[in-house]
Amino acid sequence: MLTVSTVNVNGLRAAAKKGYVEWLAATKADVVCLQETRAEPDQLAAELREPEGWHAVLAEAEAKGRAGVALLSRTAPEAVRVGFGSEEFDRSGRYLEFELPGLVVASLYLPSGEEQTPRQDEKYRFMDEFLTHLAELRDKAAADGREVLVCGDWNIAHREVDLKNWKTNQKSAGFLPEERAWLDRLYTEVGYVDVVRALHPEGPGPYSWWSYRGKAFDNDSGWRIDLQVATPGLAARARTAVVERAETYEGRWSDHAPVTVSYEV
Known about the structure:
Its cofactor is Mg(2+); Mn(2+). This protein is an alpha+beta fold. It has one domain: Deoxyribonuclease I, Chain A. It contains seven helices and twelve strands. The longest helix is centred in the middle third of the chain and has 26 residues, at 118-143. The protein is globular and about 45 Å long.
């Protein structure tokens, strides 16, 4: 089995103080994808920068203290790529790829956006470029005999079953018609598969992010925005998918929870 976990850590140094280090030491995952690390390598303790037993790469953002993604693999990657060939976004700490035997795996932190602001325009520009990359990556990987798995915080809830309060969020970034239609294109035109939804077709959820505000976590008023998106061959070999939701509010080390999928390979 190949087990892959993805989680937005909401600041790697902050998460390390709350339980991330212990989680990493206990995980059975073979690959871990991190988002929103918000740190440069020289700001991290060795146990975060180079955890024992892992081959780790951090892609920090040019803007200090923002974004940042990382990949950790128990198997040494055959190749590492930062960014996806975008002049605007390759230094933004939002995308990192590993080539592993038979697999390209990536960690993605898609911009969150904010409706009717320049941030939403930036999100749409990213989405347009990224969809092209995903189509090209699918074809190149297939030619190389590899499947593709893109894990991360996609910052879009696709359907009503993907967030609890969908009625009040229809004009909110992350659930806008244009964003949801973009995911439609990813799954229908480009041919990728939402692995967790394929294994849990009914919903609601399972949610992976809950606001720190109010009682969102206690009421399970969440969003399912942390996805594992795969080419069909790999998606068909997914056997289990779980959201590692903390037992209590106090037990959380991020406002997101790890999404973990095991694939038969």
